[in-house]
Amino acid sequence: MLETAALRDLALKVLDDNKAIDIKDIDVTSLTNVTDRMVVCSATSTRHANALADKLVRAMRDQGIRPLGIEGEEQGEWILVDLVNIVVHIMLPSARQFYDLEKLWRTTEQFRKEHEN
């Protein structure tokens, strides 16, 4: 089993090599116990989103890692690949803009810091 950093690096490389757009890696270890990191990226089409998810899953399986779950492949607007320590969100730009996961997690972190005292 790959360590979280190696798993993240592999996921980022696969996404980048396959032309994912605007890849963001978010550390959520202090915000949730569900996962350590979230990777968010955009795809140019539902076909591209499905191809990115497929290549990611294949690369992980080549390393002996089976995703815990894959959601959204049928619609293709937002595909989630759960790698336990890392959750990868592959989204069409319209879904990414609407849900704005980066802002959601950034806002959560800011809220937590403001209320720690």
In short:
With 117 residues, the protein is α+β, with helices and mostly antiparallel strands.
Total strands: the figure is: 5
**Which sequence of SSEs, written as H and E, runs from N to C?**
HEEHEEEHH
Computed Rg: 14 Å
Q: Number of DSSP helices?
A: 4
Low-confidence stretches: none
According to CATH, the fold-level topology is Beta Polymerase, domain 2
Task: Write up what this structure looks like.
The chain has 117 residues and is α+β, with helices and mostly antiparallel strands. The chain has one domain: Beta Polymerase, domain 2, CATH 3.30.460. Helix content is 44%, strand content 23%. It has a five-stranded mixed β-sheet, sandwiched between helices. Helix 1 (4-17) crosses helix 2 (46-62). It is globular, with a radius of gyration of 14 Å. The termini are far apart.
